[in-house]
Amino acid sequence: EMGIIKPVYNANSLLAELEGTMTPVQSSDPFVHAIAATGPEHATLLIANQIPLEYQIDVLYDYWEQTPILENHFAEEDLSEFTYDLKEFLDVFFNGVMPPWPELFDAFLADPSSIDLDELSWPDEIKAAWSEMRRFGRLARPKRLCNTEIRISLDGLQDGRYRFEHYVLDSRHANTYHDRELLDQRLTTAQAAGREALLAEILSINQEYDAESGKLDDAEVLLEQPREPVVIDMEPNSVHVVRFTAWE
User: Fold this and answer.
1) DSSP H or E stretch at residue 29
2) How do residues 37-78 score in pLDDT, each as one tens digit?
3) Which candidate, 152, 156, 157, 111, places its Cα nearest to that of 134?
4) Which residues fall within 8 angstroms of residue 90, CB to CB, at 6 or more apart?
5) Helix 195-208 × helix 180-192 angle, to 10°
């Protein structure tokens, strides 16, 4: 690690670009989330294309402790008052044996699936939560394999000339993890040359991979009626910031 900035640091840096009054944003994609801020002469939008990892069966149940998990961010309601036994799930669908995770995911997320939750004696609220988990898991699987085209409609900005800035944090931009092997080699070489050389190399790497390094666009644009949506292409689990500032 050696003091190298991580992608999450750059994500927070992009978040810090939001200045002004928080403005409502609507998204038609369940995995695309956005927040916006506006000022007298600017509008900034942060967009995250967050595709979750495989929905693990233990998001609602701790398999190792054999107890329900009291809090989780997958369920909208507090389910801590309900008890259920994962062993029943394994007995009914897997002959009492915990299968490898990939096998369990494939069976649970298949459409149609051989796993019918109505065969279990679990509370209806738990079965409903697992059904919702399955629905999102099915939606997420294909979206992990391709980019998502985002079409941004801008309301409230007056017609005129604006400076358009576009920053991105994804696998290829502002992301030290993408070049981890190369950076490790650079750090090893610098470390062999002494402390000062190592510190200088760390500073150089952090400057090369900071959030500013993810700037894709910085141009003058004309907004006029009728307006076309702003189209951006987002990798899975990427963060973008677009900003419009009135051109002086």
Assistant:
1) none
2) 998 888 999 999 988 776 555 555 555 565 555 444 455 566
3) 111
4) 96, 97, 98
5) 150
